[in-house]
Amino acid sequence: MNLNINEIKKIIPHRKPFLFLDSLDIIERGKSGIGHIFFKEDEFFFEGHFPNNPIVPGVIIVEALAQAAGVVSGYEFIKEDRKVLFMSISSVKFRKPVKPNQALSLHVSKLNQVKNVYKYSGIAKRGDESVTEAVYTAMII
Predict the structure, then answer these.
(1) Each residue of 20-51: pLDDT tens digit?
(2) 51 CB neighbour count, 10 Å cutoff
(3) Distances from the Cα of 58 to the Cα of 27, 47, 99, 115, angstroms
(4) β-pairing verdict for 117-126 and 32-39
(5) Which of 61, 62, 67, 99 is most exposed by smallest CB count within 10 Å?
(6) What is the DSSP string of 25-84?
(7) Which residue segment(s) compose the domain that 100 sits in?
(8) Secondary structure letter of residue 16 according to DSSP
(9) Which residues touch 26 (CB under 8 Å, ≥6 apart)?
(10) Is residue 39 reached through a cis peptide bond, with omega within 30 degrees of 0 on the bond before it?
(11) Residue 74's closest CA among 135, 18, 7?
């Protein structure tokens, strides 16, 4: 199932300039999905990160992974008006820089769940190449 930007906005509260998803494919309902984002050359953070050598800040990529997981989890609760809140990052690895005018696919999978706390694994890829990997938790309230 493919969700467009308007459907994503019904699930998570983020908005531009801090919404880092263009679309998302639900692979397995409530468990996994692949988000998509294209970083345009005029993104707000490129001006200072870094002048004459712009790269997407790693924290933005981690936030994009968290938002993708939020949509995968939140899709299950859309009619209940519940929210997904990012709680913690237990590990992250930045493997390759991401430049302006590059697209990422954000592969997220639920690892486990204890009550209303969900643990996710996320891998951001540029084509087949992994650029960022993270393990993080979120809470459904």
Answers:
(1) 999 999 999 999 999 999 999 999 999 999 99
(2) 8
(3) 25, 15, 11, 30
(4) unpaired
(5) 99
(6) EEEETTTEEEEEEEE-TT-GGGGTS-TTS----HHHHHHHHHHHHHHHHHGGGGGGT--E
(7) 2-140
(8) T
(9) 1, 2, 3, 32, 33, 72, 75
(10) no
(11) 7
Name the token pair of 65. Answer: 């992974």
Residue 122 DSSP one-character state: E
N residues, the chain: 141
Q: What is the CATH number of the domain that holds 116?
A: 3.10.129.10
| 72-105 b/e (C-beta count within 10 Å ≥ 16 → b) | bbbbbeeeeeeebebeeeeebebeeebeeebebb
* CB-based contact 71:21 (threshold 8 Å): yes
Closest by alpha carbon to 34, among 26, 46, 44?
26
pLDDT band at 134 (very low <50, low <70, confident <90, very high): very high
Number of domains in the chain: 1
Cα–Cα distance for residue pair 138/132, rounded to 1 Å: 18
φ, ψ (nearest 5 deg) of residue 61: -65, -40
Residues 6+ apart with CB under 8 A from 10: 78
